[in-house]
Design goal:
single chain, 487 residues, mainly alpha, two-stranded antiparallel ribbon, 2 strands, 1% strand
Length: 487
């Protein structure tokens, strides 16, 4: 999966009158993000958090890869059905996942402030909302068959894909519970058990797929349905393992229910903080999905070349995505402490690290496109088309790194609305029209569709980077969901 994200005061939309101004006297240097050298301590802390987050992101991808490989040995129809089922699943759950991303600023800032009551309320409300979004997602997933039919998907694939989705509903609740616990633990800087859980879940998913898809160890072969059951069971294992492994950390915050956890107004403020993140993910995902559908109009080989280049870009994107998660935590904790210099240092270190990695990957894509394409396929035409698109992916690597990390920094500050609005402008008002024009009105063809993506990403990256600089020059404002202060 490739995640692609105006208020007078940057945090006022999230906190309303409940915002607490942490610092009004200290100021950040007028030179902004380039005001001082990167401190070694900030770099070490960033890497300590970012590396496990990268592993977790890759783990998410690997679970989907394993499902695809397993059913791919059944038939092309089974492969297409699982791909369609996963696409539908992601489309219907991404908004709920975004809501839970509100745990980043809420919990991280509370940790920085040493506010144990706010940490407790934040984690418990995250779990409450995981149940709420599970119910909503279940309703949407239950209509897979009619909605896929209305979308004019192949008649022989829809019933199989719908079966896959319906079975996968059993894994909705643990998926969101895991997400809530994961975001909360990350915000507290506790990432080791998340990595352990993801590694074990991937092993379990691969084993369960092998048993249930092909009928091993005396179990009947269930085919595509078996892959769905394997995924659902693995999601339950993920939630239960993470809760068990991290219970020592979580116990003080979950041992008893906080009296304010079900406050409707507070839950709505958390939801309002997270919804823009979900919409941001949806906008980015749908832009790339639209390009994939448009690419299909050129032919099968063009579609294959596109998938190769996109898969490569998705893999490299996992690194700045992990750095963005770490940035959200470190910047959020600095806001909670009222440490403006620390927030600036963490933001600067995150940008240098994330964009630096993407610069290296850009060089590889620009210099070795043919070699990389041949690693993916032996089909000469698909490889040639991929080799044409990979250098374009190399061009947008830098912009992709900037927009990802900048989005994480803004999330740590509590600004989730700006990335959403910028995604609308960058991807849909600028990038998509350029893709359509270059792809179908000029001789650029498939490459033209990708140059539109470059334009969209460049706009998003530049605007978000400017927003980060402006936000860090202002006095930091902590996101406070409750209108009262206390434990």
């Amino acid at each position: 999966m490739h995640y692609r994200h105006p208020s007078a005061a940057p945090l006022s939309f999230a906190t309303s009158h409940a915002a607490i101004r942490v610092s009004t006297t200290s100021t950040i240097s007028e030179t902004g993000l380039t005001s001082s050298p990167v401190e070694t301590s900030h770099a070490r802390e960033l890497i300590r958090l970012a590396l496990p987050m990268v592993v977790v992101q890759v783990g998410w991808m690997l679970m989907g890869v394993v499902d695809t490989i397993m059913v791919g040995h059944l038939s092309a129809t089974a492969l297409a059905a699982v791909a369609l089922g996963n696409l539908y699943w992601f489309t219907m759950t991404i908004l709920g996942f975004g809501v839970l991303m509100a745990m980043d600023p809420i919990v991280a800032q509370a940790v920085g402030a040493g506010d144990e009551g706010a940490i407790t309320r934040g984690i418990q409300r995250g779990l409450v909302l995981s149940v709420v979004v599970s119910v909503l997602a279940t309703v949407l997933l239950a209509f897979a068959n009619p909605l896929l039919a209305v979308a004019r998907q192949p008649a022989d694939i829809v019933p199989i894909a719908s079966t896959y989705v319906i079975i996968s509903i059993w894994g909705v609740l643990p998926f969101f519970v895991f997400a809530a616990l994961r975001q909360s633990l990350q915000a507290m800087g506790e990432v080791r058990h998340i990595v352990l859980t993801m590694v074990l879940a991937n092993i379990a998913n691969a084993l369960l797929n092998w048993i249930l898809v092909f009928g091993k160890l005396g179990v009947p072969a269930l085919g595509v349905a078996g892959s769905a059951w394997a995924t659902a069971i693995s999601r339950w294992l993920m939630a239960l393992m993470l809760a068990a492994f991290s219970w020592r950390v979580l116990r003080p915050y979950l041992a008893s229910i906080h009296p304010d956890v079900f406050d409707a107004r507070a839950l709505w403020r958390v939801t309002k903080l997270g919804i823009p993140v979900g919409i941001q993910f949806q906008l980015e995902f749908s832009a790339f999905a639209a390009i994939a559908l448009l690419m299909g109009r050129f032919g099968t080989s063009e579609m294959a070349g596109h998938q190769i280049a996109l898969n490569l870009a998705s893999l490299t994107f996992m690194v700045p995505l992990g750095v963005a998660g770490a940035a959200a935590v470190l910047v959020g904790q600095a806001v909670g402490r009222g440490d403006e210099a620390g927030a600036l240092a963490s933001a600067r270190t995150s940008l240098i690290t994330g964009v630096g990695f993407m610069a290296v990957s850009a060089v590889a894509m620009l210099l070795l496109p043919e070699l990389i394409a041949q690693l993916y396929t032996s089909d000469s035409l698909a490889a040639a088309l991929a080799a044409m698109l990979i250098p374009i992916a190399g061009v947008f690597q830098i912009f992709d790194g900037i927009q990802a990390v900048s989005g994480g920094i803004l999330r740590g500050l509590g600004d989730t609305r700006t990335p959403m609005l910028v995604n609308v402008v960058g991807f849909w008002l600028i990038g998509m029209p350029i893709s359509l024009y270059l792809g179908f009105r000029t001789s650029a063809g498939p490459a033209g569709l990708w140059w539109g993506l470059v334009a969209g990403l460049a706009v998003v990256a530049i605007i978000l980077l400017v927003r980060v600089g402006i936000s860090l020059r202002r006095a930091l404002v902590r996101v406070v969901i409750d209108t009262h202060v206390g434990g």
